[in-house]
Amino acid sequence: MIRIANGQGFWGDSLEAPLEQIRRGPIDYLTLDYLAEITMSILQKQRSRDPRTGYARDFVDMVGRGAVDIVKRGVKVVANAGGVNPEACRDAVSKALNHPGTKIGVVAGDDIMGRLDDLIAHGVELKNMETGESLATIRPRVQSANVYFGAAAIADALAKGAQIVITGRTTDTGLVLGPMMHEFQWARDDWDKLAAGTIAGHTVECGAQCTGGNCQVDWQSIPNFADIGYPVIEAEPGGTFAITKHAGTGGRVTVASVKEQLLYEMGDPHEYITPDCVADFTSIQLKQDGPDRVRFSGIRGKPATTMYKVSISYSAGFKAVGTLMYSWPDAYAKAKAADQILRQRLDRLGLRFDAVRSEFPGANACHGSLAGDPAPDIAEVILRIGVRGQDKAAVERFTKEIAPLALNGPPTVTGLGSGRPKVEEIVAYWPALIPKSEVSPQISIQET
Amino acid sequence: MARVKLVRIAHARSGDKGDTANVGLSALRPEYYPILAAEVTAERVKKHFAEICQGKVERFELPNLGALNFLLHEALDGGGTLSLKADAQGKTYSAALLRMEIDVPDELLPKDPV
Asked: Which of residues 71-130 of A touch B (CB under 8 A)?
């Protein structure tokens, strides 16, 4: 049996969780997920300004703070912290670890930004998976393009002796399946086992979201959120496993908390497609196996497809969102009036947008009319209004029309403390597929 | 028969993939799953989310987990970074679904409101 812990559900998650995972109980592997779809384009921009950057800096800090324990306990660390510059990440990690003789593996080769025109020229269309549109429609606006590699390259890096594996764009589930494939020597066509490892990875990929975080069942009785334990997988060679957390930590691991996470961001549960296999979520059997422990069994999988998924980001215009807060009396009526006044002013200025959207937090921003009418004496309501368009100047002009309403519109308004809203460049996401024969992961090992 | 909100017999979590939101709906007890399967159809969910979901609603069954998964297409104002919604990832759609009212036989009705 091996223990695989997750210490990071996204870039921006708890800085303490990975260290707690190493220190508060036995683990063999620590996995960390840093890359959301949008992250790659941010990192791409950073690297274009400074070639030594372009990776998740938080990971380097974590290794620095945890170095003594990582070395002493021999914990293996697998993270997709490399972003668009995994080699630079390795160099920084090597320095932060400050321990000679440690092997660090890098999985690269996922960045196909420089090959896009070649690929298109020889017939790899990279059509949008959702809309079917050709990449040519947005080609000049592309900011990053990365293939999602799976677990196999991670398993290979571990087989070459790496204690730390840093990858570029890898699936979240691969971070967990890779160690299992390596430790248990699973065949690369043992679909049921690969599916089990994939489902284990899916369960923990959002960190504490399977250990009581965001859990709707009896949430007020979930103990000690302040010290919530992140998930630990106890994996067995046969493809069964348990999800648990370190003793003494807060949170709760139950069939209900795990089930909520299993269905999170789920498409067709019969066909959960990864580079490694196709997992069938309708085969999962769950059982509460003691306090804070859920056992998984019965998992079935199917052969992997011949394609990798590609994550492409492109510039798609500009947006800005502003807010104004109105108090009782007539809070909702005031916020709605302000919305109308603002829209009239935008019209009079001749500003055109692709979208203008108004919402009323406090009244119904989350659920719309399903929330029913707000109480007539509601204490306060926020007007949240946003615009989106291709013309940056128009979006900029919009941001200057919010504040005047503090003096020249409906009464008892506040909430302008942070000044004019910021104009944001929209970097949108273009999912595509590429034949596996077109790309392969590049694995390198270096000793510190 | 009693007319109750889904929140009495089910729990849920929601998330996003592009402009599609998913809502995973799980029975609080195994005996509630057949009620969910019979009552919470794709058509009813589409009608419930009429204002929010501009596209179609797909439903998938996971009897092994006592759960249903719904895909709400065109429900996030373009999704991801394009969306101007406060809830651009549909994180609160889980609770929005739990507002739906369904018929539950009296003998199966939970005694205490959840």
From this structure: 130
Tokens of A16: 């303490």
Chain A 229-288, residues with CB within 8 Å of chain B CB atoms: 256, 259-270, 281-286
pLDDT digits (tens, 9 = 90+) for A299-312: 999 999 999 999 99
Residue in B24, B52, B82 nearest the CB of A266: B24
Q: Which residues of chain B have a CB within 8 Å of the CB of A269?
A: 60, 62, 69
ipTM of the complex: 0.96
Looking at the predicted structure, is the pLDDT value of residue A344 above 60?
yes
pLDDT digits (tens, 9 = 90+) for A236-288: 999 999 999 999 999 999 999 999 999 999 999 999 999 999 999 999 999 99
Distance between CA atoms of residues A114 and A131, nearest Å: 24
The pTM score is: 0.96
Structural tokens at position A151? 């677990």
Distances from the Cα of A10 to the Cα of A33, A158, A280, B85, angstroms:
6, 23, 25, 21
* CA nearest neighbour of A1 among A184, A204, A123: A184
Task: Output Rg (C-alpha) for chain A, integer angstroms.
Answer: 24
